[in-house]
Design a protein that fits this description.
The protein is of the alpha/beta class. Helices cover 30% and strands 17% of the residues. It has helices at residues 21-29, 45-49, 64-74, 92-110, 128-134, 171-178, 228-231, 235-240, 242-253, 270-273, 278-283, 286-289, 320-326, 344-349, 353-363, 393-401, 410-420, and strands at 12-16, 40-44, 156-165, 194-199, 254-263, 266-268, 293-296, 316-319, 330-332, 369-371, 386-389, 425-428, 434-438, 441-447, 457-461. The strands form four sheets. Strands 4-3-5-8-7-12 form a six-stranded mixed sheet. The chain has a four-stranded mixed sheet with strand order 6-15-14-13. Helix 3 crosses helix 4 (92-110) and helix 16 packs antiparallel against helix 17.
């Protein structure tokens, strides 16, 4: 709790006397840090006194360099008095501007939706507390969520990002799982580091009175069965909306070469994944890096894809090519012919455009989804069509699958988004083993429940990091 004098603050910045490498590493493992009841950040005074170290992090997603670039923008490019030989504290105006930048960025890290302030970050209607009280969803309205504001700061470039999905009731488990990231070398730069993101109801809440599965688009008849219609308004039901919401949010903040989404009770073999490993060389190879691939353990059967849908407990490993599609502003209709992932029935009924375009025409005042001029509407399935978007593709998925009035289990939401919005290649990295690469040769696995967590396995559901 904070003293009463701080209760009206939007962001609290605390200055510490010492810079600690271990505290820096902990911040990078446990992003976004403290967001409730008020976003909080601690800045070591030595960072303000010593000559600029431009790559030094001030927060999970902001370096001194990105903060200074924002100051330069504010001053219309006039930044000649600030250089690598000066300290931030040597320029009072610089200190003030950078602290404002840090505070603004903390709001962006802690606020999921597009409620980032246009002007002063101290506007009361942009506060975190107001956000939690007043958050609501209107399908395809001209809301700041559907038309999210672009951040004034660049996305932080990373080697990788791991999102652990959990809840405050199991917060200690989340923190324990992030300890696996300590296996990285402290001197590595961001292009060699994996950061961790903890996704709980602090950042991704549900209102107590949210409507539940009321929309005509709440679910699709061809999807697997779900109990969301009965339990969708419980804490469990709110958590089902969390993975896709967290994915959408973090991709506004980070620009990683790969992204892994896992549950709080899923162990991640960071030794296998960290920079310099065989798997890292595979993920960074041009043919894999540029390809749109989602990897995980499929259920079997024929729901969503020919091999079923992903078990969320085993996790979802996404390549850079897929992340670029999800953050892009184009939506494609179904493929013109079946492939190894999707049969004709999948293509004819599960394409996202079949729902997104009619919804946009009905409710979006500025055509959130607009068919390209050279793409005549092949209704009702829009096979082979292409559309321009006013929002990112991942925002379309979030709106259709993980809003307050939808009924999608998280496994179904993510699987359909990857397979039928981004039309990614789906790899069944099953627990029995899957050869990801022949050169270099690599067999790994992602396990939904396993009695033994072997060294070659990337993720083990219901296993814990040994701390």
């Amino acid at each position: 709790s904070y003293p009463s004098s701080l209760q009206g603050c939007d962001v609290i910045i605390k200055f510490s006397e010492h810079f600690s490498v271990s505290n820096q590493e902990k911040m990078e493992r446990r992003c976004p840090g403290i967001c409730k009841p008020i976003p909080f950040i601690e800045i070591p005074v030595p960072l303000l006194l010593q000559p600029y170290q431009l790559n030094q992090s001030l927060s999970c997603t902001m370096t001194i360099s990105s903060a200074l670039s924002h100051v330069t923008t504010l001053n219309h490019g006039r930044h000649s008095s600030l250089n690598n030989s000066n300290s931030i504290a040597s320029n009072t105006r610089s200190v003030d501007n950078i602290l404002h930048s840090v505070a603004r960025r903390r709001l962006e890290e802690c606020l999921e939706r597009g409620l980032w302030p246009l002007g002063s970050f101290s506007k009361r209607n942009n506060s975190l507390s107001d956000f939690h009280v007043s958050r609501h969803s209107v399908k395809w309205s001209n809301s700041s969520y559907l038309l999210p504001q672009r951040s004034r700061f660049p996305r932080k470039k990373l080697y990788g990002l791991i999102i652990w999905i959990g809840s405050n009731s199991r917060h200690s488990m989340l923190l324990a799982q992030t300890e696996s990231l300590r296996l990285q070398q402290p001197h590595w730069n961001d292009s060699e580091k994996i950061f961790g993101w903890i996704a709980t109801e602090d950042q991704y809440p549900c209102r107590k009175d949210f409507p539940g599965c009321k929309s005509q688009y709440a679910y699709h008849w061809m999807m697997p069965s779900t109990k969301m219609a009965y339990d969708g308004r419980t804490g469990w039901g709110c958590a089902q909306r969390r993975p896709l919401r967290a994915l959408s949010h973090t991709l506004l903040l980070f620009d990683p070469d790969f992204l892994l989404v896992v549950d709080d009770d899923t162990y991640v073999n960071v030794n296998l994944l960290r920079y310099g490993s065989i798997l890292s060389s595979v993920l960074l190879k041009d043919d894999i890096r540029q390809a749109s691939i989602a990897m995980g353990h499929l259920t079997g059967g024929n729901k969503i894809t020919r091999g079923g849908f992903f078990y969320g407990g085993a996790g979802y490993l996404l390549t850079r090519g897929l992340l670029e599609k999800l953050t892009g502003f184009q939506l494609s209709g179904p493929l013109t012919s079946a492939d190894g992932v999707r049969d004709n029935k999948h293509l004819n009924h599960l394409g996202i455009m079949e729902e997104a375009l009619p919804m946009s025409r009905k409710g979006c005042p500025d055509e959130c989804v607009k068919l390209m001029a050279d793409s005549p509407a092949n209704e009702p399935h829009f096979t082979g069509n292409h559309a321009d978007l006013k929002v990112r593709l991942v925002d379309i998925c979030t709106n259709i699958f993980s809003e307050e009035d939808t009924c999608y289990h998280s496994d179904h939401a993510l699987s359909r988004c990857f397979a039928h919005a981004a039309y990614a290649d789906i790899w069944n990295v099953k627990c029995q083993g899957f050869k990801i690469s022949s050169e270099p040769e690599l067999v790994t696995a992602m396990c939904m429940g396993t009695d033994v967590c072997w060294p070659h396995v990337l993720t083990c559901h219901r296993w814990m990091t040994n701390v």
